[in-house]
Design goal:
The complex is a heterodimer of chains A (317) and B (290). Chain A has 12 helices and 4 strands. Chain A has 317 residues and is mainly alpha-helical. Chain A has one domain. In chain B, strand 1 and strand 2 form a beta hairpin. In chain B, helix 1 runs parallel beside helix 5, helix 5 crosses helix 6 and helix 9 runs parallel beside helix 11. Chain B is an all-alpha fold. Chain B is built from 11 helices and 2 strands. The radius of gyration of chain B is 19 Å and the shape is globular. Chain B has one domain. Classes of the chains: A mainly alpha (317), B mainly alpha (290). Chains A and B meet through helix 5, helix 9 and helix 12 of A and helix 4, helix 9 and helix 11 of B.
Chain lengths: 317, 290
């Protein structure tokens, strides 16, 4: 088989996704939006874990922080504008990522995994234990943001179809951004750090700065995903920042195949569909109630049998 | 805060810290020697607590005998688990270890809900430990908490003796500092791993059994302990039992006094402590020396 150009498959997939709403039932429409949002989230972690080799186990903190920023600041105005709500919901998690990254990147390997986890728990407890974000009950986002020029409505995220294309646009943007990043000098430096950080330092790269930049970009993109989720659900709660969520997104990128952008997207699709299938009564009968058990068993089998992820199935060696 | 309150809080802090140490010491050994990130370690704590709930009625007042039987059962469980799952993880990357042990948590939680349900259960302390000691006019301190601290100290001393004074302990320390060299010296590393893992599971389960009469037995109880123990292991330095002890007591103190002084933000205290220590010493208090 001759090699297809790299951009072909993602473009075909994006066009197919754009055509989907015409044929989807409301339930499937929601499911696709959820997959698209989680794909953005998974892509953001892929930059860290797959490209740079930094396994963060607290990535949900930035996702949840994006969602909370959107929900809490949208209440400032009766009809918030996307023009300030979106940048704010990305900037806050990015700033937190700068803080967490600056500290946790001093550590390596197992320490890094656990330190990121601990910082995420810290954020989780802030929202869970204090009244600042509604405590463990969470808060509602009732004023959906819009984009207006003068009095012309360009985009109302409260409407299903425009919101669908808005999230899809965000996914295309994220994918393209990361694809460009990976091809740039910056991306090659990150890959070099993953393979051999010592050698990169010897070659004159300040690896700390590169890693911190990757950490902040990943945090900002996770914030974007969280922002979209808050708009979709109209509701946020502390569980978004919990370590279960961080574990789930790690699962997605490993499920798809680490080190490839399309792996993150495939992983998000596979994870959502798997969870949906395992908790559907019609498919698995009485086991549906115990989907955690079957999901856990599936993951164990997966780790044992497919160490290279779903995209490793077709390739040799 | 008057003196009596302060003393009671000190006792609480030490008791909580010692309990954390039992869980964290197993976790740090499994990290340090096998290099496995064991997310399911909190589940072993939960298994211990539910084990106490299940077998306590069989033993009546023989609480100590129950602890011994429970520890043996937990060790056997750990031995089997290592054989069935963990022995495949040693050669894998950290990510895959995280993934499989994460999956094990899901399985354990769901099995727990299938077997015992989702209710909160209490485990009664035996009568000879049920009273409390009067402290001054207003304060009292439960005898069972004193017993819990004492039991943890006994276990910690035993652990210290085994690790520092026995041949097995020598192999464990050698394994923690250089795995390949130990293998090269002809020590059966697979058996050593299995023993260390079983011991880690037994320690976590023992902590769960001791905690059961104090904290009751509830779903998800392992997760909170797991995360706190990660903090303990990171602060103490991976693979260091002494570090785990110091860090446990520190975390116990910060958590207990945090609850007294800043009730709302108490959950954050230990993470702030960790951040400060990592800025100061990125590899924990007791950096493992090679």
């Amino acid at each position: 088989m001759s090699r297809l150009p790299d951009w072909l498959l993602p473009t075909v997939a994006a066009v197919a996704l754009a055509a989907l709403p015409a044929v989807l039932t409301p339930y499937l429409h929601d499911l696709v939006v959820k997959i698209v949002i989680l794909a953005i989230f998974a892509l953001s972690l892929e930059l860290l874990a797959g490209t740079t080799g930094l396994v963060s186990f607290g990535h949900a903190a930035f996702y949840g922080l994006g969602a909370y920023t959107a929900a809490l600041t949208a209440a400032w105005s009766d009809s918030p504008s996307l023009l300030w709500l979106l940048p704010l919901s990305i900037a806050v998690p990015a700033l937190y990522a700068l803080f967490v990254g600056a500290l946790s990147l001093r550590t390596k390997g197992v320490y890094f995994i656990m330190v990121t986890l601990a910082f995420a728990q810290m954020a989780y407890f802030v929202f869970h234990d204090t009244k600042f974000g509604g405590g463990s009950d969470g808060v509602y986002l009732t004023n959906k943001p819009t984009l207006k020029v003068g009095s012309t409505m360009l985009l109302d995220t409260d409407q299903r179809l425009p919101f669908y294309y808005f999230t899809l646009g965000a996914l295309v943007f994220t994918y393209a951004l990361l694809a460009l990043l990976k091809r740039s000098r910056f991306g090659h430096a990150l890959a070099g750090i993953r393979v051999n950080e010592q050698r990169m330092r010897a070659a004159g790269f300040r690896s700390y700065g590169y890693k911190l930049a990757a950490f902040v970009i990943a945090g900002a993109l996770a914030g974007l995903a969280g922002f979209l989720l808050a708009l979709k659900d109209g509701f946020v709660n502390p569980e978004l920042l919990s370590w279960h969520e961080s574990g789930a997104v790690l699962l997605m990128i490993i499920l798809g195949g680490l080190g490839h952008l399309r792996g993150a997207v495939i992983g998000a699709i596979a994870f959502v569909l798997l969870k949906e299938a395992l908790s559907t009564q019609g498919l698995v009968g009485p086991l549906a109630e115990h989907w955690q058990l079957t999901l856990g068993a599936t993951i164990i089998a997966f780790v044992a049998l497919l160490p290279r992820g779903l995209i490793g199935i077709g390739s040799k060696g | 805060m008057d003196l009596a309150t302060f003393l009671v809080q000190c006792l609480n802090a030490v008791q909580y810290g010692l309990l954390l140490f039992l869980v964290a010491s197993g976790l740090t050994l499994i990290f340090g020697i096998m290099g496995v990130i064991n997310l399911a370690h909190g589940s072993f704590y939960m298994v211990g607590a539910y084990l106490a709930f299940a077998i306590a009625p069989l033993f009546g007042q023989n609480f100590l005998l129950m602890l011994v039987v429970g520890v043996l059962l937990a060790a056997a469980f750990g031995y089997a688990l290592e054989w069935a799952f963990y022995s495949y993880l040693y050669q894998r990357e950290h990510l895959q270890q995280v993934l499989m042990t994460y999956a094990l948590i899901l399985v354990f939680e769901e099995l727990r809900s299938l077997l015992v349900g989702n209710d909160v259960h209490g485990v009664a302390a035996p009568q000879w430990l049920a009273g409390s000691i009067e402290l001054g006019a207003l304060m009292s301190y439960p005898v069972y908490r004193l017993f819990a601290s004492a039991a943890c100290i006994v276990v910690a001393l035993a652990l210290y003796y085994v690790v520092n004074r026995t041949r097995l302990g020598m192999m464990i320390r050698a394994g923690a500092s250089n795995r390949d060299m130990v293998r090269g010296l002809g020590i059966d590393i697979r058996r050593l791993y299995r023993i260390v893992f079983a011991a880690g599971v037994a320690l976590a389960a023992l902590a769960g059994m001791i905690a059961a009469p104090m904290s009751s037995v509830y779903p998800g109880m392992g997760n909170h302990v797991l995360i706190i123990c990660f903090v303990v292991v990171v602060i103490g330095g991976i693979g260091s039992i002494t570090g785990a002890l110091i860090a446990s007591l520190l975390v116990g103190a910060v958590d207990t006094f945090g609850k007294v002084f800043f009730a709302e933000l108490s959950g954050i205290g230990v993470y702030v402590l960790m951040a400060i220590i990592l800025v100061w010493r990125p590899e924990g208090l007791m950096k493992r020396s090679y």
